[in-house]
Amino acid sequence: MRKSHPVRRAVLATAATVSGIVLLLSLKPASDPGAAEAAGGAPPAAESVQGGARPIGDGTVTGDAAQTQYGAVQVRLTVSGGRITKAEAVQAPKGGQSDQITSNAVPKLNQAAVQAQSADVDAVSGATYTSAGYKESLQSALDKARASAPADTGGGDAAQAQTVTGEAAQTQYGPVQVRITVSGGNITKAEAVQAPKGGQSDQITSNAVPKLNQAAVQAGTADIDAVSGATYTSAGYKESLQSALDKAGG
After folding, report:
1. What's the confidence (pLDDT) of residue 246?
2. pLDDT digits (tens, 9 = 90+) for 145-192
3. Of the candidates 146, 155, 6, 164, which has an alpha carbon nearest to the alpha carbon of residue 83?
4. Could you identify which of 31, 103, 173, 248 might form a hypothetical disulfide with 196, taking C-beta atoms 3.0 to 4.6 angstroms apart as the criterion?
5. What's the CA gap between 222 and 183, in Å, rounded?
6. Nearest to residue 115, comparing CAs of 23, 62, 39, 50?
7. pLDDT given at position 11
8. Chain-centroid distance, C-alpha 40
9. How far is Cα 126 from Cα 134, in angstroms, rounded to an integer?
10. Is 165 exposed, middle or buried (0-12, 13-18, 19+ CB in 10 A)?
11. Would you list the DSSP string of the chain?
């Protein structure tokens, strides 16, 4: 009878050991909130009803608290001119690893809500449950804001809104010029109509300008932080933003 080759026996033994380890690892449950949230077994988030028959009413409104596996999430909105100008979580999971998850996820969700103007925001990676709860409470706040809106706006908000373009601010890498839309005494939209471009400036501008636009809407003033790595662009943006605000009457 032919002998089994020793190398073949070693290869077979190694393969069996590796298969056993993989099987054991696949059966190990997640043991912390971060792993559980990243696992993807989360309940589906509430659907957005953007585009409802009525606009959202101005003022501050707080959505119902959404219960998640790691604690309640509750969102408060500030609305002006029919647009979300500020979003904040007044409740969020806390304690242990939840503190780190909340501190990372909530600011991103707040920014996303202002950008999207609806509850149709993407979940933050590693914070699936928190994101789902945020979206549910955000939708509740939007529903309440719609319920409080006048049945017939008559175009009043549109008549009060004004769009103003600030003076172009010259920087070392090119001009920066900001245009804002103001309604009800608040900045509802900010955009850079001029910004440095060409070479490395393209990358810096594409990274910095969206952040500066968001910051202008959130702050409602030119007192915003410079974007890291875009000091000149940030300074020019703030200068032109202040010029636009001065034209709009402060």
Report:
1. 86
2. 888 766 554 444 444 678 889 899 999 999 999 999 888 778 889 999
3. 146
4. 173
5. 16
6. 50
7. 52
8. 20
9. 14
10. middle
11. -PPPPHHHHHHHHHHHHHHHHHHHHHHPPP-SHHHHHHHT-PPPPPPP-TT-SSPPPSEEEEPPPEEETTEEEEEEEEEETTEEEEEEEEE---STHHHHHHHHHHHHHHHHHHHHSSS--PPPTT-HHHHHHHHHHHHHHHHHHHHHS-S--TTHHHHH-EEEEPPPEEETTEEEEEEEEEETTEEEEEEEEE---STHHHHHHHHHHHHHHHHHHHHSSS--PPPTT-HHHHHHHHHHHHHHHHHTT-
Considering only CA atoms, which of 186, 233, 185, 196 is closest in space to residue 211?
A: 233
Around 193, how many Cα atoms within 13 Å sit in the side-chain half-sphere?
16
Amino acid type, 94: K
Cα 49 to Cα 144: distance, rounded to the nearest angstrom: 12
C-alpha 147/C-alpha 52 separation (Å) is 11
Token digits of residue 102: 């909340």
Q: Which two tokens stand for residue 218?
A: 């959130």
Q: How many residues does the chain have?
A: 250
Residue pointed to by tokens 């606009």:
55
